[in-house]
Amino acid sequence: MPDGARAPDGPQGTGAEPLLRVEDLRVDYRTAGGRVPAVRGVSFTLEAGSKLGVAGESGCGKSTVALALLRLLPKSARVGGSVLLEGEDVTAMRWGRLRAVRWAGASIVFQGAMHALNAVRRVGDQIAEPMLLHGTVPPGRTGARVGELLESVGLPRWRARSYPHELSGGQRQRVMIAMALACEPRLIIADEPTTALDVMVQAQILRLIDDLVAGSGIGLVMISHDLSVLADTCDRLAVMYAGRVVEEGPAAEVVAAARHPYAAALSAAFPRVGDPGSRMAPRGLPGDPPDPAALPEGCSFRPRCAVAEERCAATDPDLWSAGDGGRRAACVKVLEEAV
């Protein structure tokens, strides 16, 4: 990776070990037609108390990244690179150590809480399970702790006796967040936590996540296809395309003035408050993301890029420095401006 491509280590570049450091993460899946790359060299860091958003269209690899952080991928997946959680490589952990880290060190909020929760068990028992497994709370106090967690996510204690089908979509998502917080992890990974929720419930869940992260100093990696949600929730934003990060930087700056053509197209696809033109005719992208098994030569975004040049077919650019605040973008035009 070229000079300037990496953000400084630790707060203000002090060299302190961040909460999470992902280095050259690569994931491919075994299929009947051979190995298919889903994630191609993703790298980022996350400090405690910070929130990183990962955005992109369906199929860009963002959920694969989320699952790879805790080794939750199927057996057909092959993983390369490193995932350092407080300096310890998750990809190299033995099974016993990995079980100890899941929930207690890092936890995940899955999209589709109805499918993630056990339909025949009361939600209180499901929240208590990781605490009993890891021994973080004495058995005699689990009920009280479950009640505290439910109240922390805006649900009454008596909801511990409910089954998942007795809750609304927003309530089920709150239960998933309570479960993720049960063992007081240092890192929470939220994979599309507001998918299929109406806008009012979505706003409540996002506010809840924001308050919990701010109040406890944990780190958050939030996955979404909705750039506007991530801009409102996260400090930094990484935009993925075809298994790679193509732009990274402060969330508000990336949304307002993206340097990579794909990130700019994603931002332009959402109507803006106070902009009648974008409300009446939000822009989109022609075509579809490339098949991971048959990526185009050079820049993978080239076939859909309105400003592509002949040289874009010759190279798949690295993430180059694109301004202050650790901004980076994988576009030859960014490199051209930096020279």
TrEMBL record:
Membrane topology term: Peripheral membrane protein
InterPro entries assigned: AAA+_ATPase, ABC_Ni/Peptide_Import, ABC_transporter-like_ATP-bd, ABC_transporter-like_CS, Oligopep_ABC_C, P-loop_NTPase
Cell compartments where the protein resides: Cell membrane
Record keywords, A-Z: ATP-binding, Cell membrane, Membrane, Nucleotide-binding, Transport
Domain ABC transporter per the UniProt entry, residue ranges: 20-267
Gene Ontology MF term list: ATP binding
KW Nucleotide-binding (keyword) present: yes
The UniProt record lists the keyword Transport: yes
Xref: CDD domains: ABC_NikE_OppD_transporters
Family under the similarity heading: Belongs to the ABC transporter superfamily.
Name assigned to this protein: ABC transporter ATP-binding protein
